[in-house]
Amino acid sequence: MTPILQLSGITKRFPGVLANDHIDLQLNEGEILALLGENGAGKTTLMNILYGLYQPDEGEISVRGKPVQVHSPTDAIKAGIGMVHQHFMLVPVFTVTENVMLGEEPVRPGGFLDRPKAAKRIREISEAFQLDVNPDLYVQDLPVGVQQRVEIIKLLYREADILIFDEPTAVLTPQEADELFEIMRSLAKQGKSIIFITHKLREVLAIADRIMVIRRGAVVGETTPAEADQNKLAAMMVGRAVNLEVEREVGTPGEVVLNVENLVMRDEIKQIAVNNVSFDIHAGEILGVAGVQGNGQTELVEAITGMKHLESGKITLLGHDISKASPRQITEYGSAHVPEDRQRDGLVLPFPIYENLVLCTYFKEPFSRGIILNEEKIVESAERLVKEFDIRTPSIDTTVGSLSGGNQQKVIIARELSRPIQFLIASQPTRGLDVGSIEFIHKRIMDKRTEGCAVLLVSPELDEVMELSDRIAVMYRGNIVTILPADQVTKEQVGLLMAGVSPDVALQQIAAGETRKRETTL
């Protein structure tokens, strides 16, 4: 049988880097192929070549047995190739119909847009693939999971047969992720072929027909869910055994380190983003904040770190009122911050590694005396931290912007955790990282907890929150729905709470689901 898609000998070189090394890939009709690899392994480069964003130095792309030239996303769509991006490409103030028809607008005689025709086709696609999307609703009013379905409809509207899903569950609740998998299975049953890129090994084992692993730009092996488990996949990706279980000891929380009272914050368009939120965190404790991205977590962290002014409320850190404090003052009180957006808020990309490592301490001894920097001490410290935190770089003089995402994150972790701190804010600390980097960062966070540091962990990754936290606060539409001990709550319950279900109803729904499961089994 001729594969629907075949990549032969795809090679791509950047200055000093062989990103793709003669990669062969084939995708069969109706198949879900999972593509795994570390950060910087070459997955994104390969998909960018397939989607026409990069041009290969060597190799050939064939669709249904015929070579094709893909010089742009327009060429990819013409060849039946579409991509569902991690960050949705939708216009919030447009309807579903208007978003889907952009660039493919049907026109009535006289030059008027034929919205009813487009809406009719969207309904047909939605029904055929069990997507359940109303074409007349505005995108801004849709839940995140439904917005993702709109992205899928956009590709099916353009008659794509080969669908690339890039980290598709990054912003979904567990329930929405399960619904997406059902949609993917429905697409595959009806002949669509899918390439699924993710770093979540459980998802790969749950949805893929076949798994291909790339390491350092080359294919290192293929397997299937029947032949593999998470440990095997992690070892294939990293080239060594990886400990996927977070080692944690029973903690004994100490004094209150951070207290937040009746916090109110507005977002960039002046709407209430954090609504009268109160909580505290103790020494030696990790409080995890669970929630779908966009429910006030970003504004909460901006308030606690001094990056934005409060609308009202009070924040106390180690007895200091920091409600109006600057980021440097808050840092000087003994806090550390691993930001959500490492490139925008955590690093100075054109600066070398050694300068980024002292951004919080360059004005202190031994790194300076008055206004004079002690370059020797700065370099000596950087060399030590690069080794201690396993930052993969040719030199400490390398600009931090040229590092992979995982190594950029390690620079931030090294800078923030290598100094004396009593409070750590870790906002999406493993976002987009591979299993090896995740293992490393999780251990460092747990080490700080063991040392008596109070930790605020903010992450849309529910597995991460469940594994690391002592208590879990669930945020929904700017409110903390509830705060529960991590060992007394299930993943299913937290997922429902993240979707806005009240705690009591969540427990009832889980109990009803378990009852139905037992009845079905019997």
From TrEMBL:
It is found in: Cell membrane. One of its GO terms (cellular component) is plasma membrane. This is Nucleoside ABC transporter ATP-binding protein. It comes from Longilinea arvoryzae. Keywords: ATP-binding, Cell membrane, Membrane, Nucleotide-binding, Repeat, Translocase, Transport. It is a peripheral membrane protein. InterPro entries: AAA+_ATPase, ABC_carbohydrate_import_ATPase, ABC_transporter-like_ATP-bd, ABC_transporter-like_CS, P-loop_NTPase. CDD domains: ABC_Carb_Monos_I, ABC_Carb_Monos_II.
